[in-house]
Write a structure and sequence with these properties.
The chain is α+β, with helices and mostly antiparallel strands. The chain has five helices and ten strands. Helix 1 packs across helix 2 and helix 3 crosses helix 4.
Length: 259
Amino acid sequence: MRIALGLEFDGASFTGWQTQRAGTGVQDALERALTRFSNSRLATICAGRTDAGVHATYQVVHIDTVLQRPLQSWIRGVNRFLPPTVAVRWARVMPDDFHARFSARARRYDYWLLNDPVRPALLAQRVGWVFRSLDERAMQEAAACLVGQHDFTSFRAAECQAATPVREVTRLDVERQGRRLRVRIEANAFLHHMVRNIVGALVYVGVGRKPASWMEELLAARDRSQAAPTFAAAGLYLTHVQYDPVLELPPAEDCSPCP
């Protein structure tokens, strides 16, 4: 039986999603909990591997098991053995050909920026921080240049192992909510550090270091060295994974890390 689990987690204390020798990945914490719950080793496949310090409100994983338990048990029972910063939100029985990664049609990330003269304390591990005033209209103008299918080499980490730098961004919005800004990006898939590199470039535009038109130049350059530095992981959240609606997976919920 193939089961899909929906997870949320605070990534601040983890070295990313992927399992590590030291057992410090989110995957390690989940698989330890699954082992204790099921008394068997259950391997997990996720929709998207997140970096160290990155959070999720809608990570999807699948497991294969012969264990017959009510779906509610896969939530309450597994959560009993998870650390406080990780929780299973829902569980569904899936068709045998469902794959958390390869069945995904699109993914959505939100990046939260705190635009405030004073650095955050309570939110230090949950938001990116910019002390200079940000022009969200200029940022939105720059963001619009990246919508569509493009070669995103300029926004790709040097260690990225993707076979191609071409991705299709279907949405990229910058929205101010008081002293908070949310950068929301949806795409069919993402390159390593792609969102954080885009946010870094948008911040350059927002503080006036570069004009909005610079984003088009960066895209055309296909040269990471010409772009802005990678922005901090703390403000990044995986907030939705889109699958075929016939699967009837739970919808994503909007959430904000800021008061």
